[in-house]
């Protein structure tokens, strides 16, 4: 099953029109990413302050399908996918009451924090990607069985 993160939309997340400000959707997705790392046993303090390796986002996009309002209870599902030895992408689906309201993607590259050159993933990220891949594939198989029954 894909990793899920539950979050309520707060007033501070919204704009003058009363809907979630577009950039805050990516911030919410990043919160889900951090929670999935922590749930995998990765120490976030060490991960984000590591002096030797970093995982900058090199691409991001969001598709807004419906407005998201203050008080909405979000479920953010994330599905990371390995794109190579030094790149991964995370697909996010954000739902409110089982209705898909937004989809997002972030693409990350593993780099040496000092030289800023690409490098292969450390073992803990390979493990995180593998665990999430298996969980996502299992959920997709379960979903396909439900559809055919």
TrEMBL record:
Gene3D superfamilies: Hotdog Thioesterase. GO terms for molecular function: 1,4-dihydroxy-2-naphthoyl-CoA thioesterase activity; fatty acyl-CoA hydrolase activity. Pathway: Cofactor biosynthesis; phylloquinone biosynthesis; Quinol/quinone metabolism; 1,4-dihydroxy-2-naphthoate biosynthesis; 1,4-dihydroxy-2-naphthoate from chorismate: step 7/7. It comes from the Bacteria. It catalyses: 1,4-dihydroxy-2-naphthoyl-CoA + H2O = 1,4-dihydroxy-2-naphthoate + CoA + H(+). The active site is at 15. CDD domains: 4HBT. Pfam families: 4HBT_2 (PF13279). Keywords: Hydrolase. The keyword Hydrolase applies. GO terms for biological process: phylloquinone biosynthetic process. SUPFAM superfamilies: Thioesterase/thiol ester dehydrase-isomerase (SSF54637). Its EC number is 3.1.2.28. Belongs to the 4-hydroxybenzoyl-CoA thioesterase family. DHNA-CoA hydrolase subfamily. Catalyzes the hydrolysis of 1,4-dihydroxy-2-naphthoyl-CoA (DHNA-CoA) to 1,4-dihydroxy-2-naphthoate (DHNA), a reaction involved in phylloquinone (vitamin K1) biosynthesis. This is 1,4-dihydroxy-2-naphthoyl-CoA hydrolase.
